[in-house]
Amino acid sequence: MAEVISHEGRIVDITSQFTTVEIVSASACGSCHAKGLCGVSDAVTKVIQIPTTTGNWKEGQIVEVCLKRSMGFKAVWLAYAIPLLLLLAVLLGLYTLGVKELYAGLAGIGAALLYYLILRLFKEKLSNEYSFYIKEKS
After folding, report:
1. Fewest CB atoms within 10 A around its CB: which of 6, 49, 107, 118?
2. 110-122 burial, b if ≥16 CB within 10 A, otherwise e?
3. For residue 61, which phi and psi values (nearest 5 degrees)?
4. How do strand 18-26 and strand 43-51 relate by DSSP bridges?
5. Whether the predicted pLDDT of 107 surpasses 80
6. Among 118, 99, 117, 116, which Cα is nearest to 107's?
7. What is the mean pLDDT of residues 13-27?
8. Per-chain mean pLDDT for the chain
9. Region at 14 (left for phi over 0; alpha for psi -120 to 50; beta for the rest)
10. Of 14 and 44, the one with more pLDDT
11. Read out DSSP for 41-102?
12. How far is CA 116 from each of CA 4, 45, 76, 86, 121, rounded to the nearest angstrom?
């Protein structure tokens, strides 16, 4: 298994601080030759700002945006797994204590929202941990 996760992107802007790269995420049928006919395919454009490094980067250049695989797994845990487990724990815990379903469900959603709010407060610290880098397309 590769140690890095990489996606192809195109440099759209370069400043002294950040290099902005545009990544197009296509669905599974994005490479199908009949995608224009069925209308089911979808593609989402994502823009990532990466600290500018030394190199011969040019606007419009096709590059690979990379991130350590371990950071990708950590992101999945922080964004999806922990809030789901928190929601279920609060929901089932309160329901077991005899709280009505509606209130237990609302408390579970509230706990997940509180978790995301706390995560938002630590956004700056987390963004320093997740360092993307670019390399030339091979």
Report:
1. 118
2. ebbeebeeeeeee
3. -70, 140
4. antiparallel
5. yes
6. 99
7. 82
8. 83
9. beta
10. 14
11. --EEEEEEEEE--SS---TT-EEEEEEEHHHHHHHHIIIIIHHHHHHHHHHHHHHHTT--HH
12. 26, 24, 13, 11, 9
Per-residue pLDDT for 15 more than 80?
A: yes
1, 72 contact by CB (below 8 A): no
- Enclosing domain of residue 131: 4-136
For residue 38 the two structure tokens come to: 């069925």
pLDDT digits (tens, 9 = 90+) for 34-49: 555 555 556 678 888 8
Would you say how long the chain is, in residues?
Answer: 138
Are the C-beta atoms of residues 66 and 6 closer than 8 Å to each other? yes
Provide the number of structural domains found in the chain.
1
Over range 44-64, report the average pLDDT.
83
